[in-house]
Design goal:
By secondary structure, the protein is mainly α. The chain is built from 25 helices and no strands. The protein folds into two domains: 3-151, Serine Threonine Protein Phosphatase 5, Tetratricopeptide repeat (Alpha Horseshoe), CATH 1.25.40.380; 161-413, ADP-ribosylation/Crystallin J1 (ADP-ribosylglycohydrolase fold). The longest helix is centred in the N-terminal third of the chain and has 20 residues, at 20-39.
Length: 415
């Protein structure tokens, strides 16, 4: 056992939320760990702080002390200039080993399971990159089930964040609730125009049809979804033209754009395009771009702090308020400028997917749309929609919508 591991430490002396414990542990052992991986055989004891996994999955002292506290700390770890770079470097070394070597041969059977857990965790923080490649190479693309359960992440990627927020908020759109403790589903829960238009945008991005015909088609398919008067008139027009709207309809439907592109510049450009066919007012376009940017940054593994700073700097939204400060005097507001910042704040304050929706709805405004906006960002940040919520939403959706969302997920969310 190396000198660091043999030293008695008190868990209370180093807060579990501090990454300093990893830096101290790796100061001596990281070069040795990297050399062992490059040689194809782990020989010394460093797995807990080189390939960390979630706290609670192991019973030993080291598993607890070096356990990653939650999804947010995993993001901080991956974004750390030293820790994140080292994790990428040693994972890349693992991938460069000869193809005939198994995870068990390199790491041993027990530590191979820990690395699978580590790769599962960090692939959820930054999907589709080097950690996913490691799962494919060494684990037949199978994720660690205990890690998924601890994160409350469904095993199947599925574009349902905005849909879930819409359905949950639908009951409270005209019966505002000023608290987070409310029934999440009821016999009155249903999908509304937020869902229909989100699916229409997803269909457009799949290349099925152009954007305007797609939006019009879904209005005709689902005429009772609760569209606004101006939008309904636009949707039924033979010559639909933008009507200078700054309503939050542009933001409620934009979530597929946040998933479909590889750069932020492309995301912002297509978000503007998705808005401008109806909501060509600067505020309408800004609302759509801000939400799409949040989703893009969240799925790329950026922290809440980074997302908040980016949105404030580039869109001028005040995100330094809290839901408790907003809630008492907040009223129903369907404008982008009056509901998008508040929905983003609900996400920023959240601790998981469900709490993001509850906070957005609890403000007492345009509950279904604000739930859809907060939910669309939370899905990207927390890695999916919890199974119980997903199952209820799927039960309430028509088969054609489910089909489009699955196709979109297969094309854009699993790449």
């Amino acid at each position: 056992m190396n000198s660091h591991n043999s030293t008695t430490q008190n868990p209370e002396s180093a807060p579990q939320t501090s990454l300093e414990r990893f830096l101290k542990a790796q100061e001596i052992t990281y070069p040795q760990a990297l050399q062992e991986i490059r040689s194809g055989r782990k020989q010394t004891h460093w797995i807990w702080y080189i390939f960390p996994q979630l706290k609670g999955l192991g019973r030993s002292y080291n598993a607890s002390f070096y356990g990653i506290a939650d999804f947010e700390e995993a993001r901080q770890y991956l974004n750390h200039p030293i820790l994140g770079a080292r994790l990428h470097e040693i994972t890349r070394a693992l991938l460069l080993l000869p193809e005939d070597l198994s995870a068990e041969a390199v790491l041993g059977s027990i530590d191979a399971l820990k690395v699978c857990s580590c790769m599962t965790l960090f692939d959820k923080v930054a999907p589709g990159g080097i950690f996913r490649q490691t799962l494919k190479r060494y684990y037949q693309d199978k994720e660690d089930r205990l890690t998924l359960e601890a994160l409350n992440i469904p095993e199947e990627g599925f574009l349902l964040g905005a849909v879930a927020g819409d359905i949950i908020g639908s009951v409270y759109e005209h019966y505002s609730v000023k608290k987070t403790d409310f029934p999440i589903f009821s016999g009155l829960s249903r999908f509304t125009d937020d869902t229909a238009m989100t699916v229409a945008v997803a269909d457009w991005l799949l290349g099925t049809t152009a954007l305007v015909p797609s939006l019009q088609d879904y209005v005709r398919r689902y005429p009772k979804a609760g569209y606004g008067g101006m939008f309904r008139q636009w949707a039924m027009s033979a010559n639909p033209l933008p009507y200078h709207s700054f309503g939050n309809g542009s933001a409620m439907r934009v979530s597929p754009v946040g998933w479909a592109f590889d750069t932020l510049e492309e995301t912002l450009r297509h978000a503007a395009e998705s808005a401008a066919v109806t909501h060509d007012h600067p505020e309408g376009i800004k609302g759509a771009q801000a939400v799409a940017a949040c989703i893009f940054l969240a799925r790329k593994g950026e922290s809440k702090t980074y997302i908040q700073e980016y949105i404030e700097q580039h869109f001028g939204y005040d995100l330094h308020r809290t839901c408790n400060e907003i809630r008492p005097n907040y009223r129903f507001d369907v404008t982008c400028q009056g509901s998008v910042p508040e929905s983003i704040i609900a996400f920023l304050e959240s601790t998981d997917f469900e709490s993001a929706i509850r906070l957005a709805v609890s403000l007492g405004g345009d509950a279904d749309t604000m739930g859809a906006i907060a939910g669309s960002i939370a899905e990207a940040f927390y890695g999916g929609v919890p199974k119980n919520i997903r199952q209820e939403c799927v039960r309430l959706l028509p088969a054609d919508m489910i089909g489009v969302l699955h196709q979109f997920s297969d094309k854009y969310m699993k790449k």
